[in-house]
Amino acid sequence: xxxxxxxxxVADTAIPQNVNVFYxxxxxxxxxxxxxxxxxxxxxxxxxxxxxxxxxxxxISLLAHHCPSRKAILKATVLVILVKGILSxxxxxxxxxxxxxxxSLGYLLFQAKSxxxxxxxxxxxxxxLQSALQRLVVMLVxxxxxxxxxxxxxxxxxxxxxxxxxxxxxxxxxxxxxGLHVLMGIxxxxxxxxxxxxxxxxxxxxxxxAYSNTAAEAVTVLPRKKKEPGSGSCLC
Length: 236
Hints:
Layout: E1 2-3, H1 10-42, H2 48-66, H3 71-87, H4 93-109, H5 116-143, H6 147-161, H7 169-218, E2 219-220
Antiparallel strand pairs: 1-2
Helix pairs in contact: 1-2, 1-3, 2-4, 2-5, 2-7, 3-4, 4-5, 5-7
């Protein structure tokens, strides 16, 4: 039995991965911003900051983990803004500002890789808080400072017609809205801190399966020699 196995050396595969990982993560971030964010903005669906901001946190954390320099986060931020402007020009200016703030927060927080998980958690919470507060500020700018009073009067009018007691429910709604973003930020930050290890473990399983399949295909069993006619023993 002869076993012939060949595996690519680490040096042959490490260089292309280090070169391409920045562009792959940046492309993923840009696609999330351009397509997912563009669709949510075009349809005026709620939860844009929850989902698009969460995807941004995951991509920024991967950039911080795989790229040796923090400047890669700023470079990726500029590229994402350019791609977002080309693919979804209908996106409001606040979305571009949000991407810039997210990239700047990532650049500031990921100064030391020894606090990677803590930085991911802070980035997740701050990004979601920025998204929630930015939406509230935009609403105040568009509708004026009397927006709260109008909403308060409208909600109490509906509750009074329905037979419920009046209260400051608008404040509860705002607090709940901000609290939902904070909880989402904690979850995304927790996931971002563990994502590199999860991906590495999954890649290790894929490599083991591929290596097992390659080894099984490389095993060559020599065929048994057939006996020639007349070579065996003969009883006469």
